[in-house]
Amino acid sequence: MADLEKEKESAARKSLEWVRDGMVLGLGTGSTAAYVIRLLGLRVREGLRIRAVPTSASTEALARAEGIPLVTFADVKELDVAIDGADEVDPSLRLIKGGGGALLREKIVAAAARQVLILTDSSKPRESLGRFPLPVEVVRFGWELVAERLSRLGVTPRLRRGREGTPFVTDEGHYLLDCPFGTIADPEALARTLDAMPGVVEHGLFLDLADVVLVGRGESVEVRERGREPGR
């Protein structure tokens, strides 16, 4: 069985090849992104000069602990590279994200980056999206109505809950509905439907954002780039 944690760390270590002195980075959220932040912290303490925009309170806390200088979009209008994880990736580099609960900020950061680098272990690549329940971020007011509208799409949404059983609340104060669609035949069409649904703030379909995907696979890291077949 693959050691997924080692694969995440290998992908994170590989991602540092895209980081240059003076860059402004976007830092994702989740277990894979945490490896990147710790490795960047080591480089910063060795003299690397970077600044970063975090995508969650947890990422901000870890980055501060590692000594990484942080900025906001009041300070910068564009990022050089955004580095993040994903819950699923298909051969076209379309993603499902949001397992870590930070999809709204992650999408804003990805959209502001000149290059988006996604890191995964070998369990995340799929031929099609949908095995991982699609997170949909919704306003708290009337969330039950939004859930009912989502159910008309043939899915049974589940309100995400925290460890104590209370509803999970994102850093922006919203709820998350996890939607187990199964195979999503047309991700673009589903994204358009969700974008038009009142009460939906954002969803976890990242369809045209990833430029490079690094997949930890055993002892190696596979590099997938937009427009290039895997392994070529």
TrEMBL record:
Homodimer. GO terms for biological process: pentose-phosphate shunt, non-oxidative branch. Its EC number is 5.3.1.6. One of its GO terms (molecular function) is ribose-5-phosphate isomerase activity. Keywords: Isomerase. Belongs to the ribose 5-phosphate isomerase family. NCBIfam families: PRK00702.1 (NF001924), rpiA (TIGR00021). It catalyses: aldehydo-D-ribose 5-phosphate = D-ribulose 5-phosphate. The active site is at 106 (proton acceptor). It holds the Pfam family Rib_5-P_isom_A. Catalyzes the reversible conversion of ribose-5-phosphate to ribulose 5-phosphate. InterPro entries: NagB/RpiA_transferase-like (IPR037171), Ribose-5P_isomerase (IPR050262), Ribose5P_isomerase_typA_subgr (IPR020672), Ribose5P_isomerase_type_A (IPR004788). Substrate binds at residues 29-32, 84-87, 97-100, 124. This is Ribose-5-phosphate isomerase A.
